[in-house]
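Lecture 7 notes: from sequence to structure.
We start with the chain below.
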Amino acid sequence: MHRYFLTGIFIFTFIFAILIDVSLSQEEAKTPIKKRVKYVEVKNNKTVSSATILSKVKTRINEEFSRKILDEDIKRLYLLGFFSDVQAEVKEFEDGIGVEFIVFERPALEAIEFKGNKIFKSERLKPIIKSKLNEFVDEKTLKEDANSIVEFYEKKGYPWGVVDYKVETDATTNRSKAIFFIEEGARAKIRKIQVLGNSAFSDRRILKIIKTRSAGFFRSGIYKKEGVEEDMERLVSFYRRAGFLDAKSSFELSFDKKKRHIELIIKIEEGNKYITGETILSGVSVFPEESVRKVLKLKNGDTFTEEALHQDLTSIQEFYFDRGYITAQVRPDTILNPQTQRVDIKYTIVENELAYVNKINIRGNTKTKDIVIRRELRIAPGERFDGLKIKRSKERLYNLGFFEELTFDTEPTQYPNRRDLVVEVKEAKTGELSFGGGFSSIDRLVGFAEIEQRNFDLFNFPTFTGDGQDLKLRAQLGTVRRDYLLSWTEPWIFDYPLSFGFDLYNTTRLRSGTSGYAYDEERQGGDLRLGKEFNEYLRGDLTYRLELVDISDISAGASADLRSEEGENTISSLLFQLTRDTRDNKFNPTTGLLLIGSTELAGGPFIGDKDFTKWIGAVSHYSTHFEKYVLEMRLRTGFVESFGDTSAVPIYERFFAGGTYTVRGFKERDVGPKDVSGDPVGGNSMLIGNIEVTFPIVENLKGALFFDAGNVWSEVGDFVSSGLKYGVGTGIRIKTPIGPVRLDFGYPFNTDPGQEKKGRFHFSMSRGF
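Predicted structure tokens for the same chain:
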């Protein structure tokens, strides 16, 4: 029994094993055998290389073949944009798979033509389109190009332009030509401008803001889409500055039947006007809250604008920065108060610690010595950061004329309350060799040659630059003058704030009068200068002058005053001058005050042939209005008197007025005392006043409006006894590589009896830096 049982188990196990083996064999038969790719080829390609195509597919030789990857490869090749159709053939072999990509290339652009365009040449239209030669034709791109051309015409004032295109293909070469057919239409004129939706401002006010104008007797009224779009932005900006922060503007065009004129309809959504409510300052502890509040411009009840909010935010930051808290943070939050319907403002201030200057690092100077820059800085290591001192340091560095750009920044240090001050400079050209010629109403025809180095260093061979000295050598030859000058100035003697310099010169001028008389005036000599800064804005200068003046070749019609000066005379004088200068930039001032007072003593203890004393005072005030208009007001006065053996002040030391730099509209030196022949002889007292407004027109070009008044009197006691002469006019200021150019047209108000009352041009050119 036991034996039969064991035999049955054996037979069952054997049959079960056979069934399992059969099942596994069937499963293996169902699973396909994976084959590897034996080759990959590209067919039918003419322009695009096979290597380029194969680099984009992922079906690779000796890798297992995948139908999924092959489908993705076909999509990738389509996305290249080179082909109108892509197919793939799979060939099976006993030992692997072969894959062939069959591509049908799009035709390449051989030419792009424009037809129907008369107003704009084809060369003007080509940069507008995206389709390029030798690239494959893309219908989508061509359609976009046609729309771009339509938009271009619309922006230029042709809103009725129509553009279509056609592609011609040569089947043999598979090369194509794209042709754009253009109907330009007429140039549109704006017949009428209508404003809708405005209630806060009148139509007249809105029309003044925009630059687009309707056609009129003196206006073309040409419609330009880009100009109208700029006007919409201009209107939104205007409304936001007026407190309408949600204002929107748009426009529509209404065309007439003949498609010649349009009506511009401006639609305005003003929204609500926002008014400033309560202002809260949070986090103020170092300073009294009222001190911080004083810098805020927005007050309760004022019109609220984002621009004013930003200005107040900047003012708070500058308040803390100026007092050393350079890491102070200010965050503004605004909320519309539902009870008052006003915008409440909350400034959250995190004052942080008071910061001190650790080190001052100078960067960017390749020629200028560090000491030249450091001695102009008004802040020193160890001091707390002071915004006013940094601002003044920047002004002083700009006034050197050595740098194009200046930036001040800070860097952290290992100490939490100390930061390094970094002064980054970009040096300008300080040496110049210039020559040229010109014409001025003072000097007639003139030619010049000049060598100047404003950052001179006598001991720095071979460049001779970097120490801040000023060296100038100039020769000027003209119709009525001949000048030679050698000048040198050291602004800091032995690194002490005391300047020293000298001038050597020879000047010859041919003077002429209205009656035809003439004489030569030659002045040769030199001076020694010594100057010192007493404080930040006040300096004093002492100048000793020794000069030989020669008056010769006097014509027969000259006055007795001039004849008495014939021959050579020596002038030996000492001049002391005080200057207070608070201008932000001495080369191009926009704010500040320049105050000058001087007294000169000639002869007397300094010997010489002429004894006289001269006093001169001048004040110039600069201010900026409406961000770009600079107002300059100047007043100059002077007195000169003889003493000792000199009975009269020599004519070449008297005051003269009239012309380019005094009272424009009058001839040069024609305002003041004259002799019996009507020729100017100068006077002993003088008063000149000028008011001038300059404003930018384009880069390096400014316009000017001016009013001049002044006169010269024979004696000091006659000062302002006979009234003033007046002139008014306009002019331009041009910045050129060789210096500024001035051209003014002045008209005189009250000329002397018998003088012709007509306008006069005044031209001058200087080589200022």
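Points to note: The longest strand covers residues 518-533. The two ends are 130 Å apart (CA to CA).
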